[in-house]
Amino acid sequence: MVTQSSDRAVGLWKTLTNWLDAANQGTLKPGFPAYQIYVSQEKVGQIVESFSRAKSEEEARAAIANAKEILWGAAPQYKLRDKVANTIKDYLQMSSTTKIQQPE
Question: Can you tell me the distance from the alpha carbon of 104 to that of 102, in angstroms, rounded to the nearest whole number?
Fold first, then answer.
């Protein structure tokens, strides 16, 4: 669950990237009850709200696709990609290309 964070917050994308890494290393179980991000000041955003509302894998994948389009623009051109702040660019790249490996 992601709530009360900003769509372009470094902490948000760094945390999501860390969760993806941990899931792929087997130290974090995908789907385990819920994961939450706590922030010191309440902030809102379309992306984090869609992440928060996602209750299934299908909804989560749709939220990720929506976030990618908001931040990068429509595929395949991704015209907004070069305009993303350098502070989150690497995290966004990793978050958008990392696939969570299914447990065996």
Answer: 6
Instruction: Kindly tell me if the per-residue pLDDT of 79 is higher than 90.
Output: yes
Decide if 17 contacts 94 (C-beta within 8 A): yes
Contact 64, 56 (CB under 8 A): no
pLDDT at 73: 93
Which SS3 state, helix, strand or coil, does residue 37 take?
strand
Q: Which residues, 6 or more positions from 19, have their beta carbon under 8 angstroms from its beta carbon?
A: 28, 35
Q: What is the pTM of this model?
A: 0.76
Residue 99 tokens read as 């696939």
Residue ranges per domain, the chain? 10-97
15: which 2 tokens?
Answer: 């945390």
Rounded percentage of the chain residues whose pLDDT exceeds 90 = 12
Give the DSSP H/E element, type plus range, for residue 61.
helix 57-72
